[in-house]
Design a protein that fits this description.
alpha/beta; binds uridine-5'-diphosphate-glucuronic acid; 43% helix; 16 helices; 14 strands; elongated
C-alpha cells in the first residue's frame, strides 16, 4: 500500500521505516527541510537501536523516501498518517496547532478519497476537530475518513515495539476505512481492536497514565521498604508474578521522565478537568514522582552533608536507557539540583552526551564511564543503562575520595557492593550496614 507519514520524529520515522520493512511504499514528510536533507543523505537525526539499518535497507529497496512537501505525500498515498508533535502548553494542556496546520495542508492537497490517520498523542475528541478542519479546507470536496491509531512504542525499543505490538487500536467514525487499515497492519500479526475515535484516543492517555501510576505506586512502596528494611525489588518480583499485576513497570527509581509520561499526565488531568472531573489520583502520581526526586537528592545531601565544591560523578543523562533523548530527563534534573547546591559534576552517558551538552552547562563530559569517578567524592547512577552494570567497580572504588555510590536505578546488588567496600545507597533497598 502507498502511505505517507507526516512528521519524522520518534514515532513518525520509526513507523515509516517499519511500514516500509513489511513491504509498504512509504513517503516520510517533514517541514524541517534540514532534517529531511539529513535523512535523504542517509543520516538519522535520533539514536534508536536498529533504526539506521532499517532506514538504509528500505531506502535502498526503494520503499522509503523523504520529502518536505506535504502535497507530494498526499498525492501519492491512500493513507496519510499524522505523527507531528503535540507539546505541552504552560497550563498542562496540549498544543494542537501542529495537528491543525497539518490537517489544513492535507485538506488543501487532497483530490481523491484519502484516509487520514492520527498517530500523535492527542486529547479525546481531537479526531472530530481534525475531520471538521479537513472538511472546511478541502476545496476539492472529496470524501475522506479520519482514523485514530495511537502508538505505544517505547523509545529505545521502538523498532521492536512497532514490529511486535501488543495490540493495534483503530478508532473510526464509519466502517469504510476498516478493511484498508486491517490490510495495512496485516503483516504485524497483532490483535486489532476497532473502536470509536474517542475511545481510541482515550486508550492512549489512559494507558500512559496507568503505566506512570504503576511506577509511582512502586516508588511509594519503596519508601515503606526504606523505612522497614524490606527490599522493593523482591516486593516487585512477588507482586509481578500475579498475572493480574505483571512485573513490568514496577522498577523503583528516582522517578519517571521523558517526553511522554509527564506531558500525558498533565494533559489527561486537564482533559478530565474540562469534562468536570477532578482526577486526583493522577495528581498524586505526579506528586509521588516529584517527591521521589526530592528524596533522592536528600539522601545525597544527608550522606555528603555540604555539596558546595564537592565533585560528583554522574552516570547517565538520558531519561532512560537505549536512547539519546534528554527531554524531561530525571538525570538532567538531578544534575541541576546538585549544581544548585554548588556541586561540581563529571558526567557520562553512552549516547546522550551531545544532546545533554545543549541543556546542561558547566559540567565535565567524560567519554569513558570508567574515568568518571576520578577525583570524585561520590558516584551517582541516574539512568538504567545495562552497560553501567559492567562498570569497573574496583577502579571506581579506588578513584573516589571515599567510596560512596548512590544508585537511582537499583542496578547493583546491595550485598555485593558492601562486600566490595562501597557505601551504597539505592531506592527502597537497604544494605546490611544500614538496617
Ligand atoms: C512511554 C510508554 O511506555 C509507551 O508505551 C508510549 O508509546 C510512549 O510513552 C509514548 O507515549 O510515546 P517512553 O516514554 O519512551 O514510553 O519510555 P518508558 O519506557 O515508558 O519509560 C518512561 C520513564 O519511566 C523513564 O524515565 C523510565 O526510566 C521510567 N521507568 C520505567 C521507571 O522509572 N520504572 C519502570 O519500571 C519503568
Amino acid at each position: 500500500m502507498k502511505l505517507s507519514i507526516i512528521g519524522t520524529g520518534y514515532v513518525g520515522l520509526v513507523t515509516g521505516a517499519c511500514f516500509a520493512e513489511v513491504g509498504h511504499d512509504v513517503v516520510c514528510v517533514d517541514n524541517d527541510s534540514a532534517k529531511i536533507r539529513i535523512l535523504q543523505f542517509g543520516g538519522i537525526p535520533i539514536y534508536e537501536p536498529g533504526l539506521e539499518e532499517l532506514v538504509k535497507k528500505n531506502v535502498a529497496a526503494g520503499r522509503l523516501r523523504f520529502t518536505s512537501s506535504t502535497a507530494e505525500g498526499v498525492e501519492n498515498s491512500e493513507v496519510i498518517f499524522i505523527a507531528v508533535a503535540t507539546p505541552p502548553l504552560a497550563d498542562g494542556s496540549v498544543d494542537l496547532s501542529f495537528i491543525e496546520k497539518v490537517a489544513r495542508e492535507i485538506a488543501a492537497a487532497m483530490t481523491h478519497y484519502r484516509i487520514v490517520v492520527d498517530k500523535s498523542t492527542v486529547p479525546v475528541r481531537t479526531g472530530d476537530k481534525v475531520a471538521e478542519t479537513i472538511k472546511r479546507y478541502c476545496k476539492a470536496r472529496v470524501d475522506f475518513d479520519v482514523v485514530s491509531n495511537p502508538e505505544f512504542l517505547r523509545e529505545g525499543f521502538a523498532v521492536e515495539d512497532l514490529m511486535k505490538p501488543d495490540r493495534i487500536v483503530i478508532g473510526v467514525r464509519s466502517q469504510r476505512p476498516v478493511p484498508l487499515m486491517r490490510e495495512l497492519y496485516a503483516p504485524f500479526t497483532a490483535p486489532v481492536i476497532v473502536t470509536d475515535i474517542n475511545s481510541a484516543e482515550l486508550i492512549k492517555h489512559a494507558s500512559n497514565s496507568f503505566l506512570a501510576l504503576k511506577i509511582s505506586y512502586i516508588n511509594a512502596i519503596s519508601i515503606i521498604c526504606d523505612a522497614t528494611g524490606a527490599n522493593v525489588q523482591e516486593v516487585a518480583n512477588g507482586m509481578g508474578m500475579d498475572a493480574r499485576i505483571g512485573r513490568r513497570f514496577l522498577d523503583a527509581s528516582l522517578g519517571f521522565g521523558g517526553s511522554c509520561f509527564p506531558k500525558d499526565l498533565s494533559a489527561f488531568i486537564k482533559i478530565a478537568e474540562q469534562v468536570g472531573y477532578d482526577f486526583g489520583l493522577l495528581k498524586e502520581v505526579q506528586r509521588v514522582n516529584a517527591e521521589q526526586m526530592n528524596r533522592f537528592v536528600k539522601q545525597i545531601t544527608d550522606t555528603l552533608w555540604v555539596l558546595k565544591d564537592k565533585t560528583i560523578g554522574m552516570l547517565g543523562l538520558a531519561f532512560k536507557q537505549n536512547t539519546d533523548d534528554v527531554r524531561m530527563s530525571p538525570a538532567i534534573e538531578l544534575c541541576r539540583r546538585l549544581q544548585q547546591e554548588g556541586a561540581i559534576l563529571r558526567v557520562h552517558d553512552p549516547r546522550a552526551m551531545e544532546k545533554a551538552r545543549a541543556v546542561l552547562k558547566d559540567a565535565t563530559y567524560v567519554d569513558d564511564m570508567n574515568e568518571v569517578a576520578e577525583g570524585c567524592d561520590a558516584l551517582v547512577v541516574a539512568t538504567e543503562w545495562a552497560e553501567f552494570k559492567n562498570l569497573d567497580l574496583e577502579r571506581a572504588r579506588k578513584a573516589l575520595s571515599h567510596p560512596i555510590l548512590f544508585d537511582g536505578r537499583n542496578l547493583f546488588d546491595c550485598a555485593e557492593m558492601e562486600r566490595l567496600g562501597f557505601v551504597y545507597r539505592s531506592v527502597g533497598r537497604k544494605g546490611l550496614s544500614e538496617r
